[in-house]
Structures are given as C-alpha cells and as structure tokens.
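Much of our argument rests on the idea that a fold can be written as discrete symbols. The amino acid sequence and the backbone structure tokens for this protein are reproduced below:

___
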Amino acid sequence: MPKITYIDPQGTARTVEAEIGSTVMENAIKNGIPGIEAECGGACACATCHVYVDEAWRARTGEPSPMEEDMLDFGFDVRSNSRLSCQIKMTAELDGLVVRTPERQG
C-alpha cells in the first residue's frame, strides 16, 4: 500500500497507509489526521480539506481543476502548491506523498 505523510503546522509528521483509488482526504479522515475537516465529505464543495503538496510531489499530483481552483478561493493562506485533498487520488506512483496542513481550514 502506498504511504502518505501529513505534516501539521507545528511540524509533527504522521504517516499512514492508503488504499489505491482512495483520496488523500479519505485517508486523513480514516486515520484521524488533525487539520483535515472535510465538511462536504469529498464533494469538492468546500475548502476544509485544503493541503499544501510538497514541491517534490507537485508534478505527480497534477494541477487543480477549474472547479477545485474555485473552491480554493475559500481556503486559508492559499499558495501555489495548494490542493484540496479530496481531489488527489492515490496511485502506486504517489507512494511517499507528503502534504502539509494549513494553520486552519477556510
């Protein structure tokens, strides 16, 4: 199973195993990762699962869709590497993915 490492604003890293085909958000919720609220349940209808994708992983996770970009407008401290974790599907190629959670969600 591929692994995802979530790093909180204080620098605490938590690594979890993820099922291929699941989203970064689903794995955060399943494993009780703090900082991922996911109020809409993964429907890309809010910005409460906002993460910063580590620069080394940006090309592999891809760019946000236009709908995701619209939702990111509601996020807190949006940056060039911001993504909604509900829109990143896990693949074998994403084994080792590193994301950071913002200080707070939008």
About this structure: Residues 24-30 form the longest helix (7 residues). DSSP finds three helices and five strands in the chain.
